[in-house]
Amino acid sequence: MKMIISSLQYWLVNHPTILHFSWTQGQTPASTPLFLSLILISYLSLTYILSHHHHHLQLHAIPIHILKPISALHNLTLLLLSLIMAIGCTLSSLTLTHPPNYNYIICFPPNTSPSGPLFFWAYIFYLSKILEFGDTLLIVLTNSIQRLTFLHVYHHATVLVMCYLWLHTSQSLFPVALITNALVHLVMYTYYLLCAMGVRPKWKRLVTNIQIVQFVFSFAISGLMLYHHFTGSGCSGIWGWCFNAVFNASLLALFLDFHAKSYRKKMMMMGPGPKDKGS
After folding, report:
1. What is the secondary structure of 130-189 as a DSSP string?
2. Is the separation of the CB atoms in 72 and 193 below 8 Å?
3. Distances from the Cα of 153 to the Cαs of 46, 51, 131, 137, 139, in angstroms?
4. 143 pLDDT exceeds 50?
5. Which of 14, 102, 128, 155 is the most exposed place for a label (fewest CB within 10 A)?
């Protein structure tokens, strides 16, 4: 076990590429506002075109026996990537200072440089959000347009901006957000992988529930960060955190609405239970 941890420590924290990583706008690949703008415009434009004209483009003609392995590979890739990011960021957080300074994970000192293992994993997380745009393409290709909701597109597009700001502003608290989000996606992509393999798990609602719990937790832990910010010398990236907080609040509202509507629809389809009949 000690050898496994030591190996993980080297490959996910102390490898020279990770240890000496530095985010430099304009030099690090995908680091410019222009790149961010172009990738978002491309995503939103293609999503609109594919969702409104997929029949004319004959995308529905792709055989399901070809789409299922592609979908399974996509979900497996993001599942494994989520696991690696969660482990890498956790190990980086634990070994960031000696002894571990957990307050540092909550509140980076002002003018923190976006370099080192933690910011490397923030960078990989940022790039993974571009890979997740494949979720939208697979929804269109599998002719599941009813799943292409405003929540889905808004979430995928705006989370990329949020991750960019993590790096651009050296935002405090992002390690906690990264780890919790990666763990949530571990569950989510496991569910979608099983679906792509022909297994329909009965815990679909769990995926939505843990996402809601994640947003509530983010607000709770943000209170601790704000305490450090206003009682100490300040925390790095507070303006990036403000965007993050507004985004999370909007997602929480949308997920609660989605949860309520989905559950209500399911209850209506099931019909009244024994207690309902007696009331």
Report:
1. HHTTHHHHHHHHTT-GGG--HHHHHHHHHHHHHHHHHHHTT-TTHHHHHHHHHHHHHHHH
2. yes
3. 11, 11, 14, 11, 11
4. yes
5. 102
Q: Which two tokens stand for residue 164?
A: 């960019």
Tens of pLDDT, residue by residue over 192-232, are: 999 999 998 988 888 888 988 999 999 999 999 999 999 99
Angle at 255 between CA 182 and CA 218, to 5 degrees: 50
Closest CA to 170 of 221, 220, 126, 122: 122
With tokens 């026996």, the residue in question is 65
* Cβ atoms of 87 and 212 closer than 8 Å: no
For 5-47, how does the pLDDT look when each residue is reduced to its tens digit (9 = 90+)?
899 999 999 999 999 999 999 999 999 999 999 999 999 999 9
Q: Which two tokens stand for residue 262?
A: 């989905």
Peptide bond into 16 cis (omega under 30): no
Helix, strand, or coil (residue 115): strand
What was the pLDDT predicted at 224?
94
Q: What is the length of the chain?
A: 279
d(CA 264, CA 83): 33
8 Å CB contact between 162 and 48: no
> Do residues 138 and 154 touch, judged by C-beta distance below 8 A?
no
Q: How far apart are CA 31 and CA 260, in angstroms?
A: 38
Longest Cα–Cα distance of the chain, Å, equals: 69
- Residues 6+ positions from 17 with CB-CB distance below 8 Å: 120
Place of tokens 């969660």: 86
The domain segmentation of the chain, as residue ranges, is: 36-266
